Amino acid sequence: MATIKCIGILTSGGDAPGMNAAIRAVTRRAIYSGYRVKGILRGYKGLVADEIIDLQSDSVSNIIQQGGTMLKTARCEEFMTEQGRRAAYETMKKQGIDALVVIGGDGSLTGASIFAQEFDVPIVGLPGTIDNDLGGTDTTIGYDTALNTIIEAVDKLRDTATSHERLFFVEVMGHTAGYLALNSAIASGAEAAIIPEMHTDVDQLGQLINQGFRKSKNSAIVLVAENPQTGGAMALAERVKQEFPQYEARVTILGHIQRGGSPTAIDRILASRLGAAAIGALLEGQRNVMMGMRNGQIVYVPFSRAINHHEKSIDTGDEDLVRILSI
Ligand code: ATP
Question: What separation in Å is there between the alpha carbon of 217 and the centre of ligand 1?
């Protein structure tokens, strides 16, 4: 196994608050251990196109509190092809980069896994996505901040919902996972959460109207996970219009506001611990694993497990919890 002298860092896929804290931790922990560090701009795009900067300790000063990513991020079609990945490998050789730390979501780690196998490159991943849709880790970097952003918005919507006696559908991100919708529903005291993991044979909207809204409440907030297959919150509001015209339904799609903002303490600490651990892992000779946090302990998660979030199933008891606590 060749000795590692220089480590490249990139952020890829959707930006997530705490990515900067992770870049800082990786850079400083690597420098502490005597490695050189290079920042790859715009995710895999910068690796393919050779857009690389040197990172010193002071390059990552004053970023721990900032959302987004100082290295920029992007989606990269070329990296999906063998030819594109070969170009990325050529850049690594040219720049003298011996190992990579990839910060991103399931797509980014899927790419990392393929690249590592094809070109025998040591790669360690960090879970950087607001969606929390990675296996082997309790939460991902950015998830806690996004939850806090959502509940702040829902608290404001609640004022209008109660004043006007309306039903509000609030659509949140999550890719194909319902963690953001379900946990922000618990935290904001919403009446229900509608998430992709729920049984499709249950008419969740009908249940909500009949059990809660109709009997005891004249306003309700329902957190809805984005879902291109069902049409998300817009489709639910349309159904209310058709089937329950006595209720006034409104839709708020929170959109990209969920991805920005200064990371919470929880995300900064998670990013700092996992970022430093990524360098420790490379020193130990670990390869092709994602750093995760399980029950307060750092764990190494093989990429194959990390990209399969269905192994970390949503607690269906929490769906009942939302309903029970909002009666
Ligand atoms: P988020 O969860 O925030 O959407 P992500 O990492 O899942 O983040 P994607 O857009 O799915 O975001 O992936 C980011 C990049 O990773 C892609 O643009 C592509 O360059 C690379 N990638 C994704 N899937 C693959 C794949 N199967 N093979 C090679 N590269 C991939």
Answer: 43
